Amino acid sequence: MRNFDPSPLFRATVGFDRMADLMDRVLAADPAQPTYPPYNIEKTDENAYRISVAVAGFAADELNVEVKENALVISARKPEEEGKRTFLHRGIATRAFERRFHLADHIKVTGATHADGMLHIDLVREIPEALKPRRIEIARAESGGALVDASAA
Fold it and tell me: Over the stretch 82-139, which tens digit does the pLDDT of each residue have?
């Protein structure tokens, strides 16, 4: 595995501590990370995303979707069955799970739907007006050094 040294980035940046922490988590991630349940992450628009999780065997009331501390947490738990069932083959896993997705700043969860064994979670990037690019008018100076309003010219 390659080692990545982020120290050169810190010389020219301020406030990117979270990014460095995220890179540390990714680089130190356990390769045996659970793969259940399978999921897709899809970009549906320039500022919209959808996470689809295969949750076959779970009803909507057995699923839980939460956002806490910039993390989307999806979990599920089956209630205890009252009767004893005998399976000849059990290929549909209905074991409890918890899956976490770290969300970037300004990513908001807009809704979740459960249909046909799939849980779909829609997200959107909402950039505040204060962070959007804006054009700054440049005032022109007259020959005497006084400023002239550029919009009046």
Answer: 778 888 998 887 889 999 888 888 899 999 999 999 999 999 998 888 877 888 899 9
CATH number of 36-82+89-129: 2.60.40.790
Closest CA to 78 of 109, 57, 101, 99: 57
Eight-class DSSP state of 70: T
Nearest-angstrom CA–CA distance, 65 and 49: 16
* 3-state SS, residue 5: coil
Inter-residue contact 16 to 22 (CB < 8 Å): no
6 three-state secondary structure: coil
Where are the chain's structural domains? 1-33, 36-82+89-129
